[in-house]
Automatic annotation (TrEMBL):
<dbReference type="GO" id="GO:0005737">
    <property type="term" value="C:cytoplasm"/>
</dbReference>
<dbReference type="Pfam" id="PF05811">
    <property type="entry name" value="DUF842"/>
</dbReference>
<comment type="similarity">
    <text>Belongs to the FAM136 family.</text>
</comment>
<dbReference type="InterPro" id="IPR008560">
    <property type="entry name" value="DUF842_euk"/>
</dbReference>
<protein>
    <recommendedName>
        <fullName>Protein FAM136A</fullName>
    </recommendedName>
</protein>
Length: 138
């Protein structure tokens, strides 16, 4: 993928992740740490009970991080498939006898379309992630 196109996608995804982290993940981290601290304050609990309590405190954040990671992986996989399709089209054009400038133009145009298409997916992906994060029981 052209460097400028790659930078656009990376910047947009980073902004989305930072927004999710600031608005959702940080709050979950705060709850997790407070919950974990409360687990340690009961002197009557056994070591095993404290560990189980802490594990329960970590569960919502672990689910949240898993959701975000899964969505980002799916997004990356889709973008990669799209750009691979562009590579295949460019190779087919080159194999049919087209000159390098025509092949490069096709590749640039196709990759630009992939990038635009996937940048347009980010708002719905963000909404879906926010809804999923909000639905995780605390």
């Amino acid at each position: 993928m052209a460097e400028a196109q790659q930078a656009r996608v990376q910047k947009a995804v980073e902004e989305m992740v930072q927004s999710l982290e600031k608005d959702h993940i940080r709050k979950m981290q705060g709850r997790m740490f407070r919950c974990s601290a409360e687990c340690c304050e009961n002197p009557g609990h056994s070591m095993n009970q404290v560990h189980q309590c802490i594990d329960r405190c970590h569960t919502p954040l672990a689910k949240a991080q898993g959701l975000v990671t899964s969505e980002l992986e799916q997004f990356q996989d889709r973008l990669t498939r799209c750009t691979m399709h562009c590579s295949d089209k460019a190779k087919d054009l080159f194999d049919s006898g087209a000159k390098e400038p025509a092949v490069r133009a096709l590749m640039d145009s196709c990759v630009s379309s992939c990038v635009e298409e996937h940048l347009n997916l980010l708002p719905s992906m963000t909404r879906r992630l926010k809804d999923s994060l909000n639905s995780i029981p605390q």
